[in-house]
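Ex. 9. Protein: Dihydrofolate synthase/folylpolyglutamate synthase.
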Amino acid sequence: MTDSSLPVTLDAWLTRLEAAHPVGIDLGLERVAVVARRMGLFDTPIAERVITVAGTNGKGSTVAMLESLAQAHGLSVSCYTSPHLLRYNERLRLDGIEAEDELLVAGFVAVEQARLAPEPVSLTYFEVGTLAALWAIARQHPQLAVLEVGLGGRLDAVNIIDADVAVVTTVAQDHAAFLGTDINVIGREKAGIMRAQRPVVLGSTSLPPSVSEYAADIGARAYHLDSEFSHSSTFSDSPEFVDGDSRDVALWNWAGKAASGQALCLEALPDPKLPRDNAAAALQALALSGVMLDVEACRRALSSVRINGRMQWRGQWCLDVGHNPHAAAWVAEQLSTTSSPGARTLCLLGMLEDKDADGVIEALAPAIDAWLPVSLEGDRARKASDLAQRLELNGQQVMHQADSPVEAAIWLQTRLEPGDRVLVTGSFLTVSAIMGMWHQASSDDENGSREQDEIRNA
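Predicted structure tokens for Dihydrofolate synthase/folylpolyglutamate synthase:
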């Protein structure tokens, strides 16, 4: 196959990959390592230092905070994450900017050429995307590369790159078809991103024993939350005023260690509006990568960090991609701390068939007044009727069922009262559908305004 026969646009490449590699997940490193070696990805480090993040929940927020913190300290930084919500380009960010189509296409071409010669190697959609992203990062060779594991850890394509610092955020049951239901086995898979004699940040106090055991077995240097590093709440001495009322400003302190063992302390950090365990883990990982933490830089970074689809507010609507009980419990806690007396909190819920719907419903229920279950599309889709049945068995009020998230949102828009809040959650697919609807509406408004301007100027 010649280069001229390959696609030239990103959309065409993604269509080709979806058709050519129908198996979405095929855990194992042998095939992807062969192609990586052909591409020269093992010849030299892809970045001056690499931080790899694994876990069931909290990976995306930890990566986002690492990126923001690194940039605030003046480092060049590349981030690879998955999945995306609206555009594939979201998966690769170079110094905070989404990768251009041309760079991604060049990466896909590099992977395809290496995949085919001298003997063809089969790769999944995710494996091709990961190799293309690593190729692009290596070309930039930033001071820091932050890599998010897609699923598991030990056998994930991202794990072909040796991490200078590993981070394990949380371990809970998810993706049972691939990782099983034994929490210790799942923990062992996540721990597979660790490397001997290198540091690993353990960002949860409820990790299964297998994680620390694996670190000890291979000689990784483990830094545990509430042991080697910790965080604590405090309040500002200068309260803010909202509508004339004085309100305490929640702040927090962090304590940790440098790679040398020196004790570190950062005080009066702003609330990042993301789990503080993950923020604390990000700070510890950055310190262990050799960055001398500056408190003012950390304050700037944490006050400005944002991540799409994680407690993302737009007016009365809140988007969160949480899809397991652990993530749902954190969302419920956030909603409960900001609730207003007499106001309703409604939940537009769409989930996949292989997720723990009962556990998510139970975790969210204390913060939700009424529900709108929706159907999703695809092989693993769960019907709204199934969710409605589960909700009713749990004693929850179902106000409407819909065949899609968009249909539910349109139905709800004319029925919202001024004080209502709507949580959209349960799956990346649920959140991306609503985001896509808003994006399309915004594009239509812009096009309409442009047409009106052209008419007036004619």
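Check your answer against this statement. The first strand starts at residue 50 and ends at 54.
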